Amino acid sequence: MSQSVRDRVIAIVAEQAMLDPGQITLGSTRADLGIDSLALVEAVLAIEEAFGISIPFNANEPEQSDFDISSVGAIIAAVEKLVAEKA
Question: Could you give phi then psi for residue 37, rounded to 5 degrees?
Answer without folding.
Answer: -65, -35
